[in-house]
Amino acid sequence: xxxxxxxxxxxxxxxxxxxxxxxxxxxxxxxxxxxxxxxxxxxxxxxxxxxxxxxxxxxxxxxxxxxxxxxxxxxxxxxxxxxxxxxxxxxxxxxxxxxxxxxxxxxxxxxxxxxxxxxxxxxxxxxxxxxxxxxxxxxxxxxxxxxxxxxxxxxxxxxxxxxxxxxxxxxxxxxxxxxxxxxxxxxxxxxxxxxxxxxxxxxxxxxxxxxxxxxxxxxxxxxxxxxxxxxxxxxxxxxxxxxxxxxxxxxxxxxxxxxxxxxxxxxxxxxxxxxxxxxxxxxxxxx
Length: 287
Ligand SMILES: [Zn+2]
Description:
Blueprint: E1 11-14, E2 16-17, E3 29-30, H1 32-44, E4 48-50, H2 52-60, E5 68-75, H3 78-90, E6 95-99, H4 124-132, E7 135-139, H5 152-170, E8 176-178, H6 186-195, E9 199-204, E10 217-221, H7 228-235, H8 249-261, H9 268-276, H10 278-281
Parallel strand pairs: 1-5, 1-10, 2-3, 4-5, 5-6, 6-7, 8-9, 9-10
The structure holds zinc ion (ZN).
């Protein structure tokens, strides 16, 4: 058993495993060949892969294994079924897939602005098959909104309904949630708790720690240029910050800017200057 006091846990976040993508979506699309190399590395280096819920249980019991790693995927794209599942099975790596519940069996309509609205999503039959193969299915809302800038009613509905829809479609409990883009707030966390989730993933691009907020677990986005050397660095936390416990001022400002862009800010005039500095905050965004 590893020391719990200093241990940091990499929770990896993948999106699409495919060879082609629009320019805007390309950062979130890793080639199948590189994904295979990533999983082979976890296997040969004797990492202990877990699903998010397995990780949460082990963490709560103070029994994290040596070299823990959590592999997660957001969105529920069909290329997971085609390219990632066979690799995960070959190396016996459990993982968690967060599915946009409103688009199962359809296409990634929320990615239309990135020119990727027609990427196929997994079907219910495929989701059942991956669940039977040891992949945990988590919820990723109904339609992939920025939960912290839509109305609270809409955010609550998106969260509650996605759990219900997935559980009905799969006849399985769905206990973990991932916030689209990682965006969350205190109110959003309470909606997740009210809906009955037992954990939720944010993004943060930071290492998780044993006392990380169970409803805002830090993950590290794996981008398309991540080769095995870079993955090796991420796994040991090299150049990756350790998650923060409290929301930073920077995150709050970034949310205000996004609300302003969507016309929901109560104090738009006070923020006008911030829009000019928007690029400074873009690196807080995930997908
Ligand atoms: Zn997503």
